[in-house]
Amino acid sequence: MKRFHWLLSTLAALVLVGACGKDNPVPTPPPDPDPTPVIPPEPEPEKDPLALWGLKDLASACGLMIGTEFTYGEYSDDSLKVVMKRDFEAVTFGNEMKNDQIVTNAGQFNFTRADQMVGWAKECELKLFGHTLGWHSQQQNDYLVNKLVAGATDADEAAALVRDFHKKWVDAMVGHFDVYGWDVVNEVFIDSGAWRNKANSQLSNNYHVFFWGDYYPGGPKEFVDTAFRTAREALEREGKSAILYINDYNLEGGWAHGKLEALCQYAEGNPDVTGVGSQMHTSGDLYSPSEMKNMLERMVKTGKKVRISELDVASGKKMSQADIILDVFKQYLDIVPEAQRGGITFWGVSDKNSWLGANKQPLLYNSQYLRKDAYLKLHAYLLERSGLNKK
Ligand code: XIL
Questions:
Q1: What residues form DSSP beta bridges with 186?
Q2: The ligand 1 atom nearest the CA atom of 131
């Protein structure tokens, strides 16, 4: 028994010494597992330039108003509304302020549809441009030709009735709409620079049968002088102000230098003209950067506001759509002094609604309203130029 006690106490002593002995290291516990595994950081949506700024914010920071066009049927599309609000500051209606849409068969003015669109433009916080007070196309020919002219006893009476109706029309339009600018006349020259009339106009289908200039003793020039004077007087009477434009197409095409010169010289000679507009329906086959430069420099020389009024760029082989649109904006910002900038307006939003047909792909958004390469490049260019990304 004594021997057994001795054995137990010796073992206990050994265990104690072993546990507390200096040379026996205490095992280090394993490190705590990291509660947040390392994953690449997500891009912060609020730092994405595309989410931060629409085209209109960037353009405006560059001293440029950017606009677009839409027509009545398009507005049911919610995507259109999103894009209008995000990217554009101004709008032109594609058709709804044209003579044949406002003038009724009885020669009265019906503003219902245009007014509805004015409401939509307000919803999207868009400024409104007026297109157009004078054109040879899309007019109420039924009233003008068949009723007004045919009903007159002789040519003089017909001419007087037409002139009187033109004044009523301009007065009614200027009185009714509040716009920042009007196309007072559209397409009044042919490419050579001659005044357009029924005989020399290549556009002779049913849309182009009535030429106001035929009813003025001094021909088209007297019509255009009268159109500008009437618009200016109507604005004064209404206590309104708007830029009064002479607008035309092909001005950026090298083959229409005659027209460019005629339009600019006319504007220079008439103080009622306060703006010159270039439609710019161009393409990857037609566009020439040097002709663009030539056009802008000539337009700037008039001292009037300079506006690109209906820009679209159909696909073509020589230059990509994105490169052309970039060149248009870059040259416009470089050449047109800020005080003379009347803005750049695209003729439509999505390819699917372009008047040229979706297959020409002339606009900034594809048929699903997704941003195309041209949009992305323009956005990046305006961002860089505005310096907003560095503030
Ligand atoms: C176009 C519209 O976009 C089309 O919907 C319509 O069928 C024809 O007219 N120059 C102009 C614009 O001044 O009014 C034209 O708009 C395009 C050419």
A1: 247
A2: 14
Cα of 389 from ligand 1 centre, angstroms: 37
Torsion on CA atoms 276, 280, 285, 290, rounded to nearest 10 = 30
The model's pLDDT over 250-265, given as tens digits with 9 standing for 90+, comes to: 999 999 999 999 999 9
Which residue has tokens 């009735």?
161
d(CA 210, CA 7): 130
Residue 95 in contact with ligand 1 by CB distance below 6 A = yes
Helices (H), the chain: 2-20, 49-52, 55-61, 78-87, 99-102, 112-123, 141, 155-176, 219-238, 257-269, 289-301, 321-335, 373-386
Which residues partner with 313 through β-bridges? 282
Residue to substitute in 91, 95, 133, 308 for testing ligand 1 pocket (most ligand atoms within 8 angstroms of CB) = 95
Nearest-angstrom CA–CA distance, 222 and 216: 6
What letter would DSSP give residue 216?
A: S
State the closest ligand 1 atom to the C-alpha of 186, by its place in the atom list counted from 1: 13
The pair phi, psi for residue 348, each rounded to 5°, is: 125, 170
Pairing of strands 341-346, 305-314: parallel
Q: What is the pLDDT of residues 214-252, one digit of tens each?
A: 999 999 999 999 999 999 999 999 999 999 999 999 999
Coil, strand, or helix at residue 75?
Answer: helix
DSSP type of residue 103 = B
Q: Is 94 a pocket residue for ligand 1 (Cβ < 6 Å)?
A: yes
CA distance 21 to 227: 111
Residue 186 Cβ inside 6 Å of ligand 1? The answer reads yes
